[in-house]
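OP here, attaching both records as promised.
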Amino acid sequence: MMTFWLCLSMLLADVPTRPSACEADDDCVITAQAACCSCCPGVPRSVSRQELAEQDCSAKNCGVVPCKGTACQPVQDLNTLQAVCRAGTCRAEPAKVKKNPSLCIRDSDCVAASFSCCETCCPPPTIAATQAELDLKRGECPAKRCSMIRCAVENCPAQAPPGVAVCRSNRCELAPAR
């Protein structure tokens, strides 16, 4: 029981009490990063990217925190929330299903694919997009006017390894493969 109160007091002493300042939604991020001296993840919340980067737990002197055998509460899936900036303050709101086909909510919404409507001599670059966005691009291909190509020995630019598609700030992007 003493361990519970010790952990709770450390958690409460280290939780930021000031609201996270922002100017736009991209300034905010959802995190479950707990207090520096906590054994368990915290409650998901929205903070500014700058505030999250500035939280330096290495400077904290927590002493020995007795975490072994600590039962942590389940944490809400971070993908069910979105970080928004409202009146200059970062807030966490339920993630909405996006109508824009290029917007994502979670990594599984994104795919990495090589895509080009027209034939090319060199392989097209790998892009990150939602499946709905790729389907829209493929649907636009019949309307494209592609010129006939004749491929000679062509020096194709070197391409980076394809990587994996991830959702960052509601946009799909390529990240290095792990």
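Record two, same layout:
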Amino acid sequence: MSSKKKHLFTAAAIILATVMLFAASACAPKVQQEPENLIGFSYSYGGYPGGIWEYNIQEKDGKLYLTARGWNGVDLDVNAEIPLSTLAQLESIIDEYDIVNWDGFDKQDSSVSDGYMFSLECVYSNRTVVAKGHMNYPPNYNAAHQALADYLDSLAQPFN
């Protein structure tokens, strides 16, 4: 085989190997990082009838703030500074109910025009967990929702 043909064959083999490695890595399941350091949180739920609750917890300038709103008959309107320890308590609930594994949940029932919905976002320093649904819920939703709703309501009520 001539030198020119050897170089062409080698180049083709390198290109083929590169394409195969790229294709294999693109098809491999993505491994999510373990979440580290909760830095923000938002959760809304409810529907018509019955009311809608929305909670947002964000850090700004070394302080932690809660915004809580209610609609459709829910009396809730809060903007308040809350203890930084709130994030650790939320992380405990998230861990206890394995809420991180809800990441990517997005199921809607388009046949129901009114109904119950939820939307959740847990912002960590290294990733964000997002889940939402309308008339569809991830595993253990009811128990986790009750724990979150009770805790968030206990945060908001002193300011409402």
